[in-house]
Amino acid sequence: MINIYPWQLPVWQRIHQQRERLSHALLLHGRAGTGKLDFAQHLSQSLLCSAPNNSEACNACPQCTWFKEGAHPDFKFITPEDAETSEDAPKKKSSKKTQISVDQIRQLIQALSLTNHGVNSLRVVLIHPAESLNTASANALLKVLEEPPNNTIFILVSHQIHRLLPTILSRCQSVAMPLPARDEAVAWLTAQKVANAVDMLDYYGGAPLTVLQAQQDLSAQASVFQQLAKGAKLDSATCAGLLLEQGMEQAITLLQKWVFDLQLSLHNMPNHYHVAMVKPLQALAKSVNLNGLLEFQRVLVQAKQTANHPLSQELQLETLLLQYKRVFKH
Fold it and tell me: Can you give the pTM of this predicted structure?
């Protein structure tokens, strides 16, 4: 059973109170790593359950069994083809698709034109992440949102609501998904046996599920930090390969945080993210060209805007790392 998280309980209670008058389209939006997809799946199962108790799925009826087995005929999960299904799972390969295609939406519309599995039963369509809709697929979805089929609820999950078409936004009931309070997040992570929960939470911007996922990637990140600490002597090809394992967007974020702490070290200020790397960063700061570092920061901001473009990600990372090496005085 997919559970909701403690910080989501107020939202769950509000939806429970509105259950009989829910919009045909809900948009769950907020920061990545806070459990929005798990919440959406929990909600989907409860809506499809034939014997819910206080809005909670019974986990015993045939509908719940089908849902847990990924075989419910009235549940459609639309996500980028070949992509991971967890909101916090990094995209390990640059070949993975990052967009929901118009063909996927056309197939969905065709499926929705058919009769529901049960008499008067509800259908649920879950789309994650909604910002991965491209222009063609977003416009195709808009048509079905404007004239929704009977007994159908769409649940869109978005980490970057600003990337959605205004017309899509206007057709959905907006549900802001919260970031947990710091103490609540630390307590939850500690219960999950996450080491250095406070430092990890700071590093990942207060998103506890991202922290939990990152526990599996610590050794790879440590190797990246060891490379970055070499400054001008960094092996750009090796480091690019290590970074690519993090997923392109996460790789650039990692570089941005490293550069931010490098700048703090340059001004003899405490590190914000890399508490365990104080000495290597202080040593590295002695050879930094400040103008070069500021320029590299600007380049990273530009690179972040195209992070999800699938072409030549490894080459792009190698280019960024070559520029990083030029930040240091030889």
Answer: 0.70
